[in-house]
């Protein structure tokens, strides 16, 4: 009798565990939630500007084949943003995967992104681990502007693209080297990891990042089981305001290590920059 009860309990626990895993997988493959925010960061009288942040596409089977990414690209284009920022980790190289894809196949769907003032991307740690040269080649003949420790003009703003700090390819000084102190345009920093934030100059008051996955698996009461940041929960995800600096960290749309999510759904950020009310 006792043996039958133990067996029944074991089967119940096993089925419960499988049900939880199945649920976490369905969360991982949901279409991204679009989170929104408004920041008064433009000069008085300027036209509003919308910025869409996408990160951690991490193309790999079973949860993120290129076909799913293509559907997300359609979702992004339907938002009609003025600028699209892609904060790295284009590919996944996890061991628990039904299929890995080449750099070209992983980023090709991103070439269909459309924005008034362009699409800009920086690399993440997985891209460097896979071989960053392949990604540079893939982006070279694409409409996406690939950036590595440099800045560029994007309509009425200036974008600084910082390479991945997790693999120590970031160079903040080089990234800001081409920016004149007399340039009064809004300055946006695009980086894979938010861990560069404490090292940025004061002028960098708008930061867009990914990498953390929002913890990817966040347990009730205990919270995230991993932070992927040297600063713990400080930059875990969301809209963070520190000393007048607006930091946006997306939970991303792909997964790392396991194709599972809990308490951290896939998301993108659509941020509208509006004019300040101060006088010039």
From TrEMBL:
Pfam assignment, any one: Metallophos
Location of the Calcineurin-like phosphoesterase domain: 50-214
PANTHER family: TRANSMEMBRANE PROTEIN WITH METALLOPHOSPHOESTERASE DOMAIN (PTHR31302:SF0), TRANSMEMBRANE PROTEIN WITH METALLOPHOSPHOESTERASE DOMAIN-RELATED (PTHR31302)
Protein name from the UniProt record: Metallophosphoesterase
Organism: Pacificimonas pallii
């Amino acid at each position: 009798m006792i043996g039958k009860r133990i067996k029944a309990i074991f089967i119940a626990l096993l089925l419960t565990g499988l049900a939880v895993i199945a649920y976490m997988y369905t969360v991982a493959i949901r279409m991204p939630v679009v989170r929104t925010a408004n920041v008064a960061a433009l000069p008085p009288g300027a036209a509003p500007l919308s910025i869409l942040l996408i990160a951690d596409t991490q193309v790999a089977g079973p949860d993120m084949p290129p076909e799913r990414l293509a559907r997300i690209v359609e979702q992004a284009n339907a938002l009609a943003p003025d600028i699209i920022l892609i904060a790295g980790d284009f590919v996944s190289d996890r061991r628990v995967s039904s299929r890995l894809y080449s750099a070209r196949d992983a980023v090709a769907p991103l070439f269909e992104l459309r924005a008034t003032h362009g699409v800009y991307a920086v690399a993440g740690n997985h891209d460097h681990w896979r071989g960053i040269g392949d990604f540079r080649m893939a982006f070279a003949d694409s409409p996406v502007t690939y950036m590595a420790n440099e800045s560029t003009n994007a309509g009425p703003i200036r974008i600084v693209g910082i390479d991945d700090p997790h693999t120590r390819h970031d160079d903040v000084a080089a990234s800001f080297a081409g920016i004149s102190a007399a340039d009064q345009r809004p300055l946006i920093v695009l980086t894979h990891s938010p861990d560069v934030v404490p090292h940025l100059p004061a002028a960098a008051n708008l930061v867009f990042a990914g990498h953390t996955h929002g913890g990817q698996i966040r347990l009730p009461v205990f919270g995230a089981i991993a932070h992927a940041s040297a600063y713990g929960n400080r930059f875990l995800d969301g809209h963070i305001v520190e000393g007048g600096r607006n930091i946006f960290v997306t939970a991303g749309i792909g997964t790392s290590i396991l194709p599972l999510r809990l308490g951290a759904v896939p998301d993108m950020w659509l941020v509208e920059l509006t004019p300040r009310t101060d006088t010039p």
